[in-house]
Structure formats: C-alpha cells, structure tokens
C-alpha cells in the first residue's frame, strides 16, 4: 500500500520505477511568484505569493549519452507553463491553476505524467496548497471527450441590444424570450446594460466614482439586466460561471449570462468593454467555443 504522506510530499518514484520502462524526471521546485488569486473578497486587489513545484516525467532519451540539448524538454517549458497560466487572468482556485499548468506541461508528446504543487505562502504562518498528478493518456482522453461534445450542436451566443427589451415593454421581452427558447441549438444570451447601465453611470458621476469602482457599478448593471430580462421565466437560467453556462446549454435550457463574476477575474487587457454587448457576446462565444454569434437589436445600447 502506498504511503499517502509520501505520495503527497516526497514525490515518490515507486510507481514509476515499476513500469516497463522507467521514466526520467525534470523539475522546477519552489518557484515563487506574486499574483492576485483567491475566491474571497479580502483576496481581491491584493497580490500574494504562490510557490510552485512541477515535476514532469518523460520518456528516456539519448540526451545523456549524446549531450544534445535538443533531445530534452527544457526546464523553460515548466517555467513557461506556470507563467503563461498566471498571465491568462485572475483565478479563484489553486486547483484551477494547477490543472492549467499540468495541461500545458503534457502538450509535449515526450511527457508521460506531471506532478504539480501550488501553495499560498501569505494566508497562514505555514503554507496552504494543492497537489495534483495528471497523465498524458488521461489528458488525451479528456480532449477526445471535449471534441466529441463539440461535434454535436454547438451553442449560439446572442447579443440583445434592443432598448425595448430593457424598458417597460413586457411584450418585447416576451417575444425575444420566445424567439430564443424556440431555437433548436443551445443559446446563450448577453443583454446590453440599457437603462441599468445609464443608472450606474449616473450614480458613479453623482458619487464621484472613477476607475475600478465605476466599472464595478457597470458590471453590476449587466447582471441586473440579465435578471430583468429572464429572471422570471422558468425556461431560462441566469448564470454567472462557465460551469453553469455549459451545464445549462448541455441540458438544452437557454441561458442568460450575468457577466460580472467572470469579467472581474480577467486582466484589464483581456476584458471586453462592458458597455459593448456585441463585444461581450464575441468574448463569450470564444470562451464557450460557440459556433455562431448574433446581434439582436438596432444598436449596442
């Protein structure tokens, strides 16, 4: 029986060494980066130190005998997997961070298995962390599953920009909901902020808010618009996470995106303009791998 403590903290070679062909290992250990991460409000806007250790098990090569650097996986591959993951945008969970690092490391066909440890150093006197082990075989199976799902009816993302949908025109809202619900392919809707955005902008001016504070008001207005459009229609589900969106679409329920949560976690350079519903729809379509993106309405307001 494998000792669980050794498995978690000593990176054992036991199961590797019993394989038909023992695997070699390259590693980067105790690499520290300062980033913003965490699901709690107290962790937003604050950089904290993360410590990374990545061990990549690879099939043996002749590099040791030939002294040929081109035959090995570079240590830079591991460092870049960490840095590229952090550059994608803000994350809530260490688990997500570890998964993305592992996936990047396993892209090289010479890689067989990866062990990733990510720790927070500033939350307690010691360290809080997560460790995962992922294999290339499992990663390939997961990619095949995703491809098979994508081969089915891909979702459509619709940007709703008609001001009547957000005024007191119940008939317009009902008609739009009926049109979306009647589509045969899964559909996710992005609703322009409309009068909610105007109210948020006015409140920001009145209170002298600028920058991040004013933008958070606008993001809140987008969520309000989503709920105003679909919150009382049981056929629709208002979602604020990618997991909820995917689940709704796979279940055949039309979804309306409340974007504040996802947009707050993006770096500024990756964040679409929250005032631009078509831009938000294009972002969501790329995020979901949607097959089509449409604009419903005469303008973007």
Automatic annotation (TrEMBL):
Domain of life: Bacteria
Record-listed E.C. numbers: 4.1.2.25
Matches recorded under SUPFAM superfamilies: Tetrahydrobiopterin biosynthesis enzymes-like
GO biological-process terms attached to the record: folic acid biosynthetic process
Gene Ontology cellular component list: cytoplasm
Pathway: Cofactor biosynthesis; tetrahydrofolate biosynthesis; 2-amino-4-hydroxy-6-hydroxymethyl-7,8-dihydropteridine diphosphate from 7,8-dihydroneopterin triphosphate: step 3/4
InterPro entries: Dihydroneopterin_aldolase, FolB_dom, GTP-CH-I_C/QueF
Dihydroneopterin aldolase/epimerase domain: residues covered: 26-134
The keyword Mitochondrion is assigned to this record: no
MF terms in GO: dihydroneopterin aldolase activity
Keyword annotations of the record: Folate biosynthesis, Lyase
Keyword Lyase set for record: yes
Catalytic activity: 7,8-dihydroneopterin = 6-hydroxymethyl-7,8-dihydropterin + glycolaldehyde
Pfam families found in the cross-reference section: FolB (PF02152)
Family the entry assigns: Belongs to the DHNA family.
Protein name: dihydroneopterin aldolase
